[in-house]
Amino acid sequence: MLFNNSVTSVIILLFCQNGVTFSDSVKISSVKKYDESNVFVPTNEWQEIKRDQVIPKGLHVQIDLTTGMRRAKLLDSTDDDNQASQLVLSKNNDIENPNENLNKPLKEKYTLNLDKIGAIDPETLSEIKNKYRSYTEIKEDFKNLELAVKTEMEVLNDLLEKFKDIKNNKPKSSYNEINWDDTWLNTLVDMEYLVHQVDNARMFTQANGIENIVFPSLNSSSAEVRAQACRLLGAASQNNVPSKIAALESGAIRVLLHTFLSDQSPTVQSSALYGLSSIIRNFPLAQKLLINNGGIEVLNSVFHGENSDHLKLQIKILTLIDDLITERQEVNKEIKLISSRNSSNSLEQIEELEEKQRQYDAANLERKLMELDWCHHLINILQKQVVVQDLNSVSVDNKHYRKQLNHDDIEKIINSIISLFNHCLRNFKNNLLFKEIISNLESWYMVLSEEEVAHGDSDLYFTSLFKKIRHITISLT
């Protein structure tokens, strides 16, 4: 049998309201009258429907989706007694034009009723006109705008000129000075947004933006302006070699160190640190200049005296130092990796990396850190973090408390400890409090790691942190 279970088929039960011709496509715009000789005559047996045959009402239709063959028969009495009881080919308009009912709804839907439009009362029409402007009015508004599109460099150049006017027109009254500071600040913010783009940053430095805009802003009486000036310099220098060199040549490192040391605002200090880090990252020559200008001693001062409670700033400094140490270690790893390849291009790459390594060696950051007892800072800041978060007195089973923990800060401290672990090993081993804290952290993060694995978390953040702490514990034994 042609239509069996092995053949893909679909059975459609049609209660045809009109005699509809099955064809490849039905175009409403061109409907043909039916030919009585071409009407399908059904029986109680399945019969094939020929192409373009008109199908009467109330048939059981079957279509084979594999071959495209169509068959039909009368409805069984069990299917629908009323529909199958009669088969009358009516010569009314429905059969004469089988698609007329398809045309009607579309015509009614899309025919514009001009009578209804004319029936709108004058008051309603006036209300509509007042609510919406005419096309002529809108066109005139756009014409009057005279919009001119400027490039980012043109906008930056306008801001540079605007800054000159601001700096040269300082108001005499304190009231006007507040607005003046706001204008100054907003101009710096706009510049910061633009100099994130490499070419804009290069234009900014070539226009002496560091000397003429950043440095004068650092003398402002407004802490917000001073902080924004540092962020502007940081944005211009970040991942931008020409701007880094320009900052180095302008003496920006020395100026930022002075700002960091002398300014009492934590926000300004944090922003100055950002500016410094943007200049010296991946720039060993700048790192050497930082060390030669007493930069590590300046950063070290945050861990003593009045600034000892600035935990967030201390963690930022630890993170910066950790990044600088990691840079040097990555260069050493890359040299070993390229040396193992023995390719023709390896020699030039190795020479470049070895020159970079010599510059890192000349800076000798680790030696300076050991001179300033940096290992002691690592121990103290870890202890502070544990005290602040009260890790010793709260059970790891306290899930509500665990959600409030600052795991990010703990991770940064652990990374800093690992970076200098070999240099500080003796200090760590001889400090019982340090070993106790590490042991407690290991217990904490072991539980968090087990839960993370059990829940099927994809990032395994706690598991990674647990492994780092576990590595420290093993190395201390």
UniProtKB/TrEMBL annotation:
Residues 321-373 form a coiled coil. Residues 1-23 form the signal peptide. The keyword 4Fe-4S does not apply. Keywords: Coiled coil, Endoplasmic reticulum, Glycoprotein, Protein transport, Signal, Translocation, Transport. Its main location: endoplasmic reticulum. GO terms for cellular component: endoplasmic reticulum lumen. GO terms for molecular function: adenyl-nucleotide exchange factor activity. The keyword Signal applies. GO terms for biological process: protein transport. It is found in: Endoplasmic reticulum lumen. Belongs to the SIL1 family. This is Nucleotide exchange factor SIL1.
